[in-house]
Structure formats: C-alpha cells, structure tokens
Amino acid sequence: MSVARTIAKAFKAVEKAEGAGARVRRSIGVPQLRNFSPFLMLDHFSVNIGAGFPDHPHRGQETITYLIHGSIDHEDFAGNKGTIYSGDLQFMTAGRGIVHAEMPGKNEDGSPNVGLQLWVDLPKDLKYCEPRYRDLRGSEIPTIKTDDERVEIKIISGNSHGVESIKDLAYTPVWLLDVTMQPGGKLSQLLPKGWNAFAYVLKGDQVIFGDKNVEQYYNVVFDQKGDGVEVVVPDNAESEARFVLIAGEPQNQKIVQYGPFVVSSEEEVYQAMLDYQSHSNGFERARNWQSEIGKAMLGA
Fold it and tell me: Is residue 74 part of a domain?
C-alpha cells in the first residue's frame, strides 16, 4: 500500500436506550459523526425477549442488519417475514415506504441478541423505488485468512486480498468487512479511492489503526485521502480483536432526515409524514396492519 489513510477522529460509542427496551451504542447519527455520506446511522444493539423494535415506518434509505449473536425475526406490511441468525445479514431497501417490525428471538441461555444496524442513504433518484429485501446467510459469505492465519476476514460486501463478495446486495455501493485479528496480527486493506470509511471495534483492548491505539466500542473515522488502512494488534494484547471495516461511496446530495424518513427537502419530510398518516403514496398497506411479532410483544 503506497499511502495509508490517516485517522480523522476516534470516539467511544455510549450505550443508551432505544426502541422498546433495547440498548444501543450509536456511533453514527450522533454529534461526533452525523451524515457521514452515505452513512446515516450505526447502532450496536443488544436486545432481550420483551424488548425490540415494534411496528415502525421507513422511507428513503437502506438498512443493513448484521446479527452477531442470537436471532432476530422481521415482518412487514407486504407479507414478508423471516428470521436471521448469528452471522446472517438482512439488506432492506425502504424506498418509497415500508412499515415493519424487528423483534428478538429467545436464547436458551437467556443471553441478549446482539448485532449491528447500519442506515445507508439512497441516491436521490432511488428514494421512491419499490421496497425490497435481501437476506445473506453467514454460510454464503467468503472468508479468508492472512498473515499466517492471525487475521481472518469475512467479506460481506466488497473485496479483500483479491476475493470478491456476493454482488447486488444493496443499491448504494458499500464495502463491509468483518475482521478478527490475533495478537501479533497485521492487516493492510485497500479501499476504493474517495470513499468514506470507518471501523467500529466490537472486541479488543488494543487495536492500532495507523498510529492510534483504540479499544472496544470505538468508532475510528478515516480521512478520505489514501489507498487503504493499516491495522496492527500488538503481540502483548490480552485478547484477539474484532472490528467491522466499512466504506461507502459518498453522495453529492442534500440529506433531510426526520426520524425514519430520509429525503432531500423539508417539503418531502412533511409529505412523508402525511403519506404515512394517510396511508398513501407507498404506505397504503399500513392501514389497519399490525405485525404478529409486534402483537406478541404488546400482549395483543
């Protein structure tokens, strides 16, 4: 790698309540990092039975849900339903409008369901496309090992060391790599030129990005200039490190967000709220609809 990216900022994600009883560490969509195009939000969530994300709308963005432990059920007003398990992902394009629920499964050991949810902005000309889903099973994800097997890379989306991921998972170009590094491991990862990129540390007490040492729950934001990133886990680290490395093509467009509606003007925000309340222009199927998984939580 000729020029490694430098660190623009790094900060720890603070845990807080979200949804109905869920706990999240949000590191995009906070004052430290807002509208990092094309990224709108990143939540590291932990949710038990009795909590979750009952029926709620979206418009104008894509969501990527990566489950690290447990299971999550999903259901929407178009009749789509299913479950993702540890290592699986769901790519959802909200487009012109969708109402859905995401609720945790029950783990035998009582442990919470843990994962990441990333919100990605849709290009302006796709804001009002038809909604769609794409589930990606963990068994479909190419995995490679480098540096004498001290580094393992799950290539969820993108390319690492010449190995390509499955294509056409989302409309907005995004790379998503899940990296586990043993003490003494080193990684040089190329990234597309000009794309915005960050890393979120899921595990580890010592992870060195460039010349900056960070630990668990930190978001590391890279400068846009450079060919890729350099990562080292020192020999004396007490544990392995695990992080996701994510890059996306920035979009030259205005972002106007009101909760789950991500559009291009203030007028479109008002229209989205009106459409949702009046069950029109993409939200017709929301009229009198309730998810079965949401009812179960509410005791209906």
Answer: yes
Asked if the structure places residue 123 within a domain, the reply is yes
39 Cβ partners below 8 Å, 6+ apart? 28, 118, 119, 120, 121, 196, 198, 246, 248
195: left (phi over 0), alpha (psi -120 to 50) or beta: beta
According to the annotation, is 69 in a ligand binding site? no
Establish whether 102 is an annotated binding residue. yes
CA dihedral 59, 64, 67, 72 (to 10 degrees): 20
CB 279: neighbour CB atoms within 10 A? 17
Rounded Cα–Cα distance for residues 56 and 62 (Å): 14
Q: 56 a known binding residue?
A: yes
| 143 part of a folded domain | yes
- CATH code, 147: 2.60.120.10
> The whole model's pTM is what?
0.95
Which residues constitute the domain of residue 80? 7-248
Cβ atoms of residues 100 and 75 within 8 Å: yes
Does the annotation flag 161 for ligand binding? no
Q: DSSP letter string over 166-180?
A: -S-S-SS-EEEEEEE
What's the chain's length in residues? Answer: 300
Residue 211 structure tokens: 């010349």
10-residue stretch averages of pLDDT, the chain, 300 residues long: 92 88 93 94 94 94 97 93 96 96 93 97 96 94 98 98 94 96 98 98 96 96 97 96 98 93 96 97 95 74
CA distance 221 to 114: 23
Structural domains counted in the chain: 1
Is 111 a member of any domain? Answer: yes
